[in-house]
Amino acid sequence: MNFKIPVSVLVVLHTPSLEVLLLERASRPGYWQSVTGSIDHRDEPLADTALREVREETGIDAASYPLSRWNVVNTFEIYPQWRHRYAPGVTQNTEHVFSLALPGRLPVTIAPDEHLAFLWLPWREAAEKCFSWSNRDAILVLPHRAPAPA
Predict the structure, then answer these.
(1) Is residue 1 assigned to a domain?
(2) Is residue 45 situated within a structural domain?
(3) Could you read off the pLDDT of 76-94 as tens digits, one per residue?
(4) Residue 135 in contact with residue 34, Cβ under 8 Å?
């Protein structure tokens, strides 16, 4: 069995007016989040993981827009319902935070095996809707991290 590597990215997609894209998890209806995903192999650069996950989960070509690595790293316990995806004994994940500045709301094509729906919400509402503390915290600091509107 190919186990997931417990190193992941969190990518907050946003517009200049700080509307944030959230996705509803298919495996946990009601759980909303930004784009997330684990590295595919130990040598995959984190920025490549972020670009790949955005494309896979939203259909958006992230390479066409400014991707910012925040140099924020969160370590958290993997929820018990998802631990079977990891090697036995793995209980912690290390998450690297990125943001992707989009020119506005873009069409989204969700991966139906991963997500049920998507929403564009103002950043405060998006933060409130996230089930993950690290995702909520990233969105709450977005106004200080995002490039100023042109």
Answers:
(1) no
(2) yes
(3) 999 898 899 999 999 999 9
(4) yes
Entry field: residues in the chain:
150
Flag whether 150 is in a domain. Answer: no
Q: Are 8 and 90 in contact (CB under 8 A)?
A: no
pLDDT (average), residues 19-41 = 95
Pick from 119, 120, 115, 123: nearest CA to 141:
123
Mean pLDDT of 18-26: 97
In a domain, 2, yes or no: no
pLDDT on residue 23: 98
Q: What is the CATH number of the domain that holds 43?
A: 3.90.79.10
C-beta of residue 101 within 8 angstroms of C-beta of residue 148:
no
**How many folded domains does the chain comprise?**
1
Six token digits for residue 68: 């910012």
The distance from CA 82 to its chain's CA centroid, rounded to whole angstroms, is: 16
Per the structure, the complete domain to which residue 130 belongs is given by: 7-145
